Amino acid sequence: MKPIFAILFFALVVCGCTTRSTARLKAQNAFLAGQNMALQQQQAQAASQTPGVTVVGQVQNSRVSWVAGLTLAQAVATANYIGPDEPKQIIITRQGESAALDPKDLLNGTDFPLEIGDVIELR
Q: 52-56 and 90-94 as β-strands: parallel, antiparallel, unpaired?
């Protein structure tokens, strides 16, 4: 019985063991990579269509047509946020660069100008 136990123990040591936290981290990284790929595809598709900005999140209208002087507040209002709670974070992606904003700044009257092709993510 001891040789079988030793072989099984050796196989476990050689093959490794995945903990729940490691598996969860791998799954989370895979999910985020998939989200990034989808976001890049949306950006490419949006750039090839009519000019505007894309709003990602719990909104009714994910595509907001471009008008001169379009701001973040206008885009979020046009997209019609329908989430059960207020967003906790707003991320604007412009030409591959992302910036996180606090939604409280927007509610306190600080607005941000947008550019054609911007992607706004409401989390």
A: unpaired
Distance CA 42, CA 100 (A): 19
Task: Report helix, strand or coil for 10.
Answer: helix
> Considering just the CA atoms, what is the radius of gyration of the chain in Å?
22
Residues 29-54 have pLDDT tens digits of: 888 778 877 877 776 665 566 899 99
The token duo for 52 is 């505007």
Residue 1 lies in a domain: no
Domain that holds residue 46: 19-122
Q: Is the pTM of this model over 0.85?
A: no
Q: Is residue 101 part of a domain?
A: yes
The answer to whether residue 89 is domain-embedded is yes
Decide: 56 and 118 in contact? Cβ < 8 Å: no
Domain holding 101: CATH number?
3.10.560.10
pLDDT tens for residues 59-117? 999 999 999 999 999 999 999 999 999 999 999 999 999 999 999 999 899 999 999 99
